């Protein structure tokens, strides 16, 4: 064994991800939806930044506000690198979640968060591409939405890398995002 190869054998591998590593996933290739100002946004708009995508709806009583509040804490933990993370909230309820409502909703959590929406067909196609389930559930004279509660993380090159369970902590996510930033 040469001296150089013995040194490389001593290098420690990066710590394992605490979230779900889906680096080789054949789904979740991107999105093309409208922001609250009507501009079409795609994953390419955020090249060079990590992108965390969450599907939800503004009238969600618990899962969605919890995920967005957790994303605030993740950004805080990233410190000087907070601006290297773009949080994207995609509505699964375009019938009620107007552009104006979405803008106010995400800004209430963090002004840097971006809400996206499409029509019913675009919403279904985007959700299908991410393997996200959603369904309208009648509740009296209105309805709620059942939906997948995972967040997805793209690396700075726009490759889908992580799936984040709803019960994972901001510490877990920040840990993994720092690994992705260090690898960039």
The total count of helices amounts to 5
Tell me the domain tally.
Answer: 1
CATH class: Alpha Beta
Q: What is the name of the CATH superfamily?
A: Glutaredoxin
Rounded average pLDDT: 93
- Counting DSSP E segments of at least 2 residues, the number of strands comes to 10
Question: At the third CATH level, what is the topology name?
Answer: Glutaredoxin
Classify the helix fraction into a percent range: 25-40%
Beta content: 25-35%
Order of helices and strands: HEEEEHEHEHEEEEH
Could you explain how this protein is built, in words?
The protein is globular and about 55 Å long. Strands 1-10-9-4-5-6 form a six-stranded mixed β-sheet. A two-stranded antiparallel ribbon has the order 2-3. It has helices spanning 3-10, 63-78, 99-109, 120-129, 170-183, and strands at residues 20-21, 32-34, 40-42, 50-56, 85-91, 114-116, 134-139, 142-147, 151-154, 160-164. Mean pLDDT is 93; it is low at 1-8. A hairpin with a 5-residue loop joins strand 9 and strand 10 (160-164). It is 32% helix and 25% strand. Helix 2 crosses helix 5 (170-183). The chain is an alpha+beta fold and 184 residues long. The chain has a single domain (22-183), classed as Glutaredoxin, CATH 3.40.30.10. Belongs to the SCO1/2 family. This is SCO family protein. It comes from Leptothrix discophora. Residues 8-182 form the Thioredoxin domain. Keywords: Copper.
């Amino acid at each position: 064994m040469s001296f150089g190869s013995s040194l490389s054998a001593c290098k420690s591998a990066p710590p394992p991800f605490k979230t779900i590593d889906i680096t080789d996933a054949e789904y979740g290739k991107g999105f093309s939806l409208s922001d609250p100002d009507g501009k079409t946004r795609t994953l390419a708009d955020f090249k060079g930044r990590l992108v965390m995508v969450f599907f939800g709806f503004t009238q969600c009583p618990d899962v969605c506000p919890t995920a967005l509040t957790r994303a605030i804490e993740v950004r805080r933990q990233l410190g000087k690198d907070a601006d290297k993370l773009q949080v994207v909230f995609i509505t699964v309820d375009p019938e009620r979640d107007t552009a104006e409502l979405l803008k106010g909703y995400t800004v209430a959590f963090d002004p840097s968060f971006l809400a996206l929406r499409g029509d019913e067909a675009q919403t279904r196609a985007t959700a299908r591409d991410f393997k996200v389930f959603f369904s309208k559930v009648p509740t009296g004279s209105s309805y709620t939405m059942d939906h997948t509660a995972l967040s997805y993380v793209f690396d700075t090159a726009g490759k889908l890398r992580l799936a984040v369970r709803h019960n994972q902590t901001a510490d877990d996510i920040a840990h993994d995002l720092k690994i992705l930033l260090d690898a960039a």
